[in-house]
Inverse folding.
């Protein structure tokens, strides 16, 4: 067994580190330069708006009394561990899956840092159309969403082709 096959897609961990670094830097800059809740218009549909989220996506469980912080920390730790094992088991040639896993891992670790250190996640990207606003989010959320989208595309459209290819090669 070569070292390449033993490490699988762990080669993409550098991408997770970049996601964490850019996410934490963007949150630091935003937290240092914006006033809480005051929008700064960038485009007619895009504002920078500092927000602290004690809940999960769309502020789910934000008013749960504080225990949700540790629940979400536990979930992020478990998901990160599962992702690392999955990355190790994912063949290196399935680079798109490795990239997707690394994006989700980096985003999860960026938000995990916020929860542990601050007790909430720093959000600042606000998209809207007229009076209709989408939930405020951050770059870690973007990475998680991109990674999850790639994984869904893989499951729906690519996994079967990979399985067929492996079965065909096994018959040869």
């Amino acid at each position: 067994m070569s070292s390449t096959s033993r490490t699988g897609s762990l080669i993409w961990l550098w991408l997770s580190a970049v996601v964490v670094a850019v996410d934490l830097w963007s949150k630091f800059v935003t937290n240092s330069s914006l006033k809480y809740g005051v929008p700064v218009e960038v485009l007619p549909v895009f504002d920078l708006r500092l927000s602290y989220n004690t809940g999960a996506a769309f502020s789910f469980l934000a008013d749960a009394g504080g225990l949700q912080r540790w629940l979400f920390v536990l979930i992020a730790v478990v998901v990160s561990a599962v992702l690392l094992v999955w990355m190790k088991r994912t063949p290196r040639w399935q680079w798109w899956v490795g990239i997707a896993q690394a994006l989700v891992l980096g985003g999860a670790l960026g938000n995990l840092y916020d929860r542990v250190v601050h007790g909430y996640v720093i959000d600042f990207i606000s998209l809207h159309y007229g009076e209709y606003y989408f939930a405020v989010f951050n770059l870690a959320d973007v990475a998680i969403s991109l990674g999850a989208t790639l994984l869904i595309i893989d499951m729906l459209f690519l996994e079967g082709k990979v399985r067929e290819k492996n079965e065909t090669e096994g018959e040869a």
About this structure: The radius of gyration is 19 Å. The chain has a mean pLDDT of 86.
